[in-house]
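Our preliminary data section would be incomplete without showing what the modeling component actually yields. Below, a chain of 435 amino acids is followed by its predicted structure, encoded as tokens that our downstream tools consume directly.
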Amino acid sequence: MPFAVIGLSHRTAPIEVREKFAFGSTEMTDVLSHLLKGKGVSEAALISTCNRTEFYLHLSDPEEAIPRVIETLAAQAGELPKPAERYLYVRRGSEAVQHLYRVVSGLDSMVLGEVQIQGQVRDAYEMARSLTGQRQAVRAVFNRLFQSALAVGGRVRSETRLSEGAASIPSAAVELARKIFGSLRGRRGMVIGAGDMGELTLECLVNEGVASVMVASRNMVRAREVAERFHGAAVPFSDFWDQLPETDIIITSTAAPHTMITREEFQRRMPRKLKSPLFFIDIAIPRDVDPEIGELPNVFLYSIDDLEHIVTANHERRLAEVPKAETIIAAEVDKFWRWYSSLQAVPFIRQLRERAEGLRQTELDRARSQLDHLSESDRQRIDRLTRDLLQKVLHQPTARMRAAAEDGREHDVLEAARYLFGIEEEDAVGEEPRE
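Predicted structure:
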């Protein structure tokens, strides 16, 4: 099968395992470049979020490439409680396409109908497209695949009610805070991390009526920009410790590759006994907050996996929309697969057109020696006439070749056509030829 997705998600691994497989932005570009330099991978994209790490692959040699990708994931994770393969899944062919469509639609998310995942898939696609060098990560097939996936996600959200309500990790985190406090009005909140996830979380906090909000980040330009949007304050990451005694809710969502808030630092910086409860909700992967902090008196720590247990008021209504979403996805998978199958006819069609054009030019050149009496405009008319005639003759065979490939009959039909026209087979699936 030419397509595969290899990875893990919240369905196959707990947070302490998922964070070991996570890739930073620089690591993502490096690992994709490395995979493309090896054998068997034609195109590749990598999604690495708080709930999943997945390689999407267009393969020229699956048996060569898939074990290599699994080895790459295992090397990234390092030491694990179980072998890396125990946490990973491999889906091939149309199942891999279906998986991507379900992911981008929010059907495979921890929070059903999550909207944030569509932006994360788009970011992964754009990052892969930006790779330059001898081998491009995204070419014709993956351009079509990811553009169609994003369109599917848009259709599911516009044609169903799957995303209504608290359908994102940030909104679920704030829902958890509201369950803890009863109401967030008058509370003081802090978001550590000024990325998209932090900004969405801040918006959810403000909508719940918190009295004040702060944004702590190493990027102060971005922190001020986000804080001003919600009438909050921006503080450097190094100063957030000074604000903790006056804060009720801290939600962390940085992209740091290691723990940002350790137990040792927390105990050194904070009073021995907190006057009021302090709630951490850590939605970062890898985790920002040392899990042992949750063992300290009056400190309550929740990770992203705890959000899975939050049942929103409209969950059942969203669940009822799943069959509609699955119907959309099934139709779009079939549509994409028909398009991809039609590419099996491309090498033959290209050769047929090149052969026919070569014959046209040969015969035209031969005839020109007998057409010296014609004007240049008449010669151009003859050239255009023969070219148009050739296009009309080839149109129906070309269309039928594509149709046969879409219907899965390309082998028999193409073999017969190659025999009749005397055209040798090409192995590579090429670009779709122009009419």
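The chain has a mean pLDDT of 85. The two ends are 28 Å apart (CA to CA). Preliminary results of this kind motivate Aim 1 of the renewal.
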